Amino acid sequence: MNILIVKLGSIGDIVHTLPALAALRHAFPEAHIDWLVESRCKEILLENPTLLEDTIYTTTQLVVGERCALAASSGLINAAPDEASKRFLATQTLDEARHVEIFTQRLFDLGVKKTELEDVIKAMASPHLVAFAGVLLEKVDKKDFVAGVVGQNIVLEGLAFSVFEMQHAVNKELNPKFAHTLSGTIADERRHVGFGENRIGSLLKDEPHKKPAIEKMQKDMSYHILATFAEAFRRNDGAAEEERRLASLGAGKAEWQGADLAKLAPAEMEQLLANTVLREFKIRLGRLGLEYQTPAAP
Amino acid sequence: MSREVHSLAPDEFLDAVHSFEFWFHSIQGYLANTEFGHRPGTPKEELPTDRRERLITVLCNYCVGETAALDGASGLIGFAPNRQSKIFLATQVVDEARHLEVLIHRLSELGVANPEQEIQLRSTRSLSLFRRRLIELVASKDWEAAIFAQNVILEAMEFAAFQSHARDADPITRELLEGIIVDERRHMGFGENDLGRRLALTPHVRARLLEVKRELDPLVLETFEEMLSELGVPRSERPELGRNYLATVERLGFGS
After folding, report:
1. Which fold does the domain A45-287 belong to in CATH?
2. pLDDT in tens, A39-87
3. Which residues in B4-27 are b (16+ Cβ under 10 Å) and which e?
4. How close is the nearest chain A Cα to the Cα of B71, in Å?
5. Whether pLDDT at A11 is above 50
6. What is the DSSP letter of A153?
7. Bond prior to A202 in cis (omega within 30° of 0)
8. CA distance A97 to chain B (A)
9. Residue A191 is inside which H or E element, if any?
10. Mind telling me how many Å the CA of A90 is from chain B's nearest CA?
11. Would you call B93 and A94 a contact, using CB atoms and an 8 Å cutoff?
12. Chain A contact for B91, CB < 8 A?
């Protein structure tokens, strides 16, 4: 079934129509719903300067993370010891470049000019994420295949996985176009994490004595990623407050991990994310027979 | 893609052509409904033993070339000068990996039990030297020299070999080579455009590229010679692979 909502503007009217969208989605979960609006009302979140700045910040971290993933996965191809790994990493290179492309386009959609792209990224990139990229790419440059796969496909992708899922939940109702983009990214990340688990799992099966070295790699490389998440939550309480206010106006629930994100304070949201990220990360490590090592600040 | 990309302004052209949208659109034209590079209904020709053996040797050497191309293109991403080039090279990386996959699959169809081992055994010395030199150029992070060696020299070498081979190959091999040739054309186009723009701004780069060409040309020509003599093709019957390669490189704007 196809449903078209015609409510061209204004922003206030659109916000008050959001409950109708939620009700339609609830009543017709399989329906394809389009909404005709004036182009200036396309993304209501972006009319709000606080949210716009916050969204650009978050998207910048996605671009930086995906650029790092692109450099790492392509750099690892040359170091891969077998043809099958080379082939997988080639598909991962394609995925990561596509993510770079769509998140960069997202920055342009948010009003970042093409000529200002690198300056915006430089100004907004989390120093922790930049530091992580430095550590990972140094290992890739040295053709250290195992450290590269642990850093890229287990630490970076494994930890970021839950963040993508939470972002998807937050954006599902308020920003379905971006949520759709994220859902494609999540599917790719799942495949990449699977490759990392299989590859490192086989290695540990053949060479169990390498377990302490791999656990140490996880310990050394996790810190900067977790610090990036913490920094993102603490930098802008005002934006989180605005998101909750808009959601309470009727965009419906943003459910994730059994909680309504629209009702959580930033500290509660951070706690929920931290618990989920670590729980799922530990489960993944456990499947490989690895113990989670609490990261220490470098 | 409905727009005529050649009518776009230079920046818009790069955004349009070096994009996944463009790549998806391009490959759908010739890879849709194929399995391992050929249509499922393509007739399987029974090859006599000697012809089958020769084909295996040729395909093993193609695999060496494609592995070099995969390692080279992926290494270039790390120091590509801009976003659009990184995106293009990511599509090239997956093209090269696909070539390797279809060629290895063809080796399996021909009864090769351990393709990786067979490739080691049958690869020619000159091609292995070429591969090593290409990876050194990529590792040096000299963009102009590396993209020239990868997207002009290597791609033109493969283009000449595949085009000649496709003319009298069995139907399955012909189809998979034709799919690869279309990719090669796109890769050479990227090298030609990128280097063409650079040379217009910094003409002195040409001298360095010609130095690379002088170093690599003999390896390309020796690769052809070695392969054809290993295949037992009499000198009088050998295809003009070397001449075709040099003509392709010249057409791209890099004559000696």
Report:
1. Ribonucleotide Reductase, subunit A (1.10.620)
2. 544 555 555 666 788 888 989 999 999 999 999 999 999 999 988 999 9
3. eeeeeeeeeebbbbbbbebbeebb
4. 5
5. no
6. I
7. no
8. 6
9. helix A176-206
10. 5
11. yes
12. yes
Distances (CA, A) of B253 to A100, B188, B196: 32, 11, 8
Q: Determine the straight-line distance between the first and last CA of chain A, rounded to whole angstroms.
A: 55
| Interface touch A90/B97, C-beta < 8 Å | yes
Residue B122 · residue B57 · CB < 8 Å: yes
Q: Record the tokens describing residue A5, joined without a space.
A: 């909502």
Give dist(CA B210, CA B213) in Å, integer: 5
- Interface membership of B77 toward A (CB under 8 Å): yes
**pLDDT average, residue stretch A200-206:** 88
**Topology (CATH) of B52-251:** Ribonucleotide Reductase, subunit A (1.10.620)
Asked whether the beta carbons of A252 and A244 are under 8 A apart, the reply is: no
Locate the domains of chain B by residue range.
52-251
Q: How far apart are CA A103 and CA A97, in angstroms?
A: 10
Beta strand segments in chain B, E: none
> Which of B20, B77, B101 has the CB atom closest to A98's CB atom?
B20
Question: What residue type is assigned to position A93 of the chain?
Answer: T
Is A90 close to B74, i.e. CB distance below 8 A?
Answer: yes
Domain ranges of chain A: 1-42, 45-287
Mutate to test the interface with A, among B23, B94, B119 (most CBs of A within 10 A): B94
pLDDT for A136-169, tens place per residue?
A: 999 999 999 999 999 999 999 988 888 888 888 8
Is B104 an interface residue toward A (CB < 8 Å)?
A: yes
Nearest-CA distance from A226 to chain B in Å?
25
Chain B residues touching A71 at Cβ < 8 A? 77-78
- Look up residue A103 and give its two tokens: 């998140």
Q: Among candidates A88, A240, A260, A273, which has minimal Cα distance to A164?
A: A273
Q: State yes or no: pLDDT of B91 exceeds 80.
A: yes
| Complex ipTM > 0.90 | no
**Chain A partners of B89 at a C-beta cutoff of 8 Å?**
74
Tokens representing B16 are: 């349009």
Amino acid (1-letter code) at residue B22 = F
Cα–Cα distances in angstroms (integers) from residue B203 to residues B20, B207, B212, B222, in the given order? 31, 8, 16, 30
- The pLDDT, as a whole number, for residue A17 is 63
Helix or strand or coil: residue A258? coil
Predicted TM-score (pTM) of the model is 0.83
Structure tokens, B147: 């993209």
Q: How far off is chain A from B93, nearest CA to CA, in Å? A: 6
Q: Cβ separation of A86 and B67 shorter than 8 Å?
A: yes
